[in-house]
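Problem 3 from the worked examples.
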Amino acid sequence: MKREITATALGLLFSLPAMADTATAISGDTGAEKRSPTFFKTIVEIANEQDKNPSKDWFPTGPRKFKSGYGKVANNVKAAFSLDLQSWAFEKGERLDNLTATYIPYKKREEFAMFWWNRHDANYKKAAPWDKDQWKYEAIIDGTELVWRAGNKATDGYSASMTMGHSGLMAQLIKTEGK
């Protein structure tokens, strides 16, 4: 029962539109804060806390460190990207409790990230190609983890199958660095 409620609550949260109307969107503003203010705020708080006191196990490979311009992006923009990425993945059918059948390949996530950052960050547009690649990679990994941790805080925790799915997803995403 708890697993169904958690999955349903997260499903409702992430079934929101992944992109704001271009007429109202401004750099860094996708409407994510308005669509899900509490969850958005939680993501920003988690990112702020990680900036102050980095966890040694933020990623499967270690602490939350960035090599690209993504590291200089404001946490509210990172939160907006995180929510939009998760909404997009949910709309495409990805489910952590059935990741084997629903996994969205990294290349598709990278295309989404490129589109999103081109639309929402002038510094990304001006970045060197190698920095853009690293930026997308870091944003996808960090955004996925930010949403996961915020969801864990917002619920009574995740089911075992969702936890295994998230671990598998992060392992797949981490393997793509430099590809």
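Problem 4, a separate protein:
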Amino acid sequence: MLKRIVWLVASAAMVLGQSEPCNGHVELCARPYNNVSFACTHNSYSSPPPNALLVLNQENSIEQQLNDGIRAFMLDVVRNKPVATDGTSNIFNTIASWFSRAKNADDPLESVHLCHESCLLIDKGPLVDSLTVIREFMDANPREIITFIIEN
């Protein structure tokens, strides 16, 4: 009798597990990654306030995009390169500060930012902040697949 109960519980668990959707659809669970299309946003981080950028590509934050079903994110990742702080702002000082920052970053996670081509004009902030939002979503939705397309 105990064997039948264990078998019944195990069978029910397998059936329940198979009925949970993967990226919103049960049918996708058995498909290989390269046979599934994913909605993707370009410059996914480029959204309005509270962290607005001068140039917007998206109307919604990464968190809202995840809630809306977006599962692929194109992210421009750049080493944070602060401008010279000595009052001069010519291109040579700017370039020198890039290399200085790249070699002496106190915290590599904080020094990698979401920027479009350069952090001089458009800087969404540390990459780790956006990855934290995505991690929280993935912790709450473990059957979802998230794709990153990293650009620089």
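Solution to problem 4. The helical segments are 2-19, 62-67, 91-103, 108-111, 127-140. DSSP finds five helices and five strands in the chain.
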